[in-house]
Amino acid sequence: MERALIIEKLTKAYDKEPVLTELDLEVPTGTIFGLIGPNGAGKSTLIGILTGLLDYNQGSIVINGLSYNSSNEIEIKKDVASVLQPPLLFENFTSHEFVTYVCEMYSIPAHGLNKKIESLFDYFEITEFMHVKTKQLSSGSRKKLAFCAAILTEPKLLFLDEPFESVDVISIGRMKNVIRRLKQKGTTIFITSHILEVVENLCDDIAILHKGKILAYLDSATRKELEKNSNLSEIFEQYVESGGRSDDMLSWL
Ligand SMILES: Nc1ncnc2c1ncn2[C@@H]1O[C@H](COP(=O)(O)OP(=O)(O)OP(=O)(O)O)[C@@H](O)[C@H]1O
């Protein structure tokens, strides 16, 4: 099977404090992959590295068949888009200026672009903010705008870090529709989320990241077996130990 992403022995420390330790991970091309893990597990750090925002100490990364290094960074990035947490927007641009600027950076042809922008903004109910500066948008609208910009760049690999956080339930449903459509077109989607019901229902393979390592990789066969008896939240709890904590600790409450 083809792999959109191959990570080997990836190690990252912040000021000597290890966050990712010899992490190995492979993501099959054209699938929706879910990365879940407790707070502080290293999910955003991993996405930061994979999108070129953060450096790393050791290991190797292959994206869409290209080995990641400074000489081919630009070639890799033209096929990769992301929605980060918090989303990165140009604060003094209007929503329309922002998405058109992002499309220019990705050399997306201008012909027909406005129609696509209008339909996406309409679908996500942000048309009224078309000519409003991004710094004035609510957190949910910022997320939706960053998502629209990422979609418009027609990526082969799309990283979504907590894409559903702050987003209303109707818009989450629409984001899920778009993500499924992208998969049908062959895009690989890499999602992190704490909303496990959405991950369970949307993703193909799922990995659990804990303390900087992949604790479990649940492919479709493994999921099928485990999900006979438990939902994803229960499976997550079984893998990620509670460290003996229970409600009894809060008996004073
Ligand atoms: N810039 C930074 N400097 C130092 N430590 C950092 C920095 N960014 C993150 N960390 C630490 O790295 C660890 C992993 O953080 P990260 O944000 O990647 O986790 P996460 O899995 O995305 O967490 P969450 O689910 O809470 O968003 C945490 O211990 C965090 O405190």
Describe this structure in words.
Belongs to the ABC transporter superfamily. GO terms for molecular function: ATP binding; ATP hydrolysis activity. Residues 5-236 form the ABC transporter domain. There is one protein chain. By secondary structure, this protein is of the alpha/beta class. The protein has one domain: Rossmann fold, CATH 3.40.50. It has helices spanning 43-50, 73-77, 95-105, 113-123, 139-152, 169-184, 196-202, 220-226, 232-239; strands spanning 3-14, 17-28, 32-36, 58-63, 66-67, 80-83, 157-161, 188-192, 206-210, 213-218. It has a 6-stranded mixed beta sheet, with helices on both faces. It has a 4-stranded antiparallel beta sheet with strand order 2-1-4-5, covered by helices on one side. Helix 3 packs parallel to helix 5. It is globular. The model has no long low-confidence stretch (mean pLDDT 95).
Ions, cofactors and other ligands present here are:
adenosine-5'-triphosphate
Question: Mean pLDDT, rounded to whole units?
Answer: 95
Q: Find the CATH superfamily.
A: P-loop containing nucleotide triphosphate hydrolases
What gross morphology would you assign?
A: globular
Instruction: State the helix count.
Output: 9
Output the strand order for the largest sheet: 6-7-8-3-9-10
CATH class: Alpha Beta
Quaternary class: single chain
Organism: Rhodohalobacter barkolensis
Pfam family, one: ABC_tran
Keywords: ATP-binding, Nodulation, Nucleotide-binding, Transport
Family: Belongs to the ABC transporter superfamily.
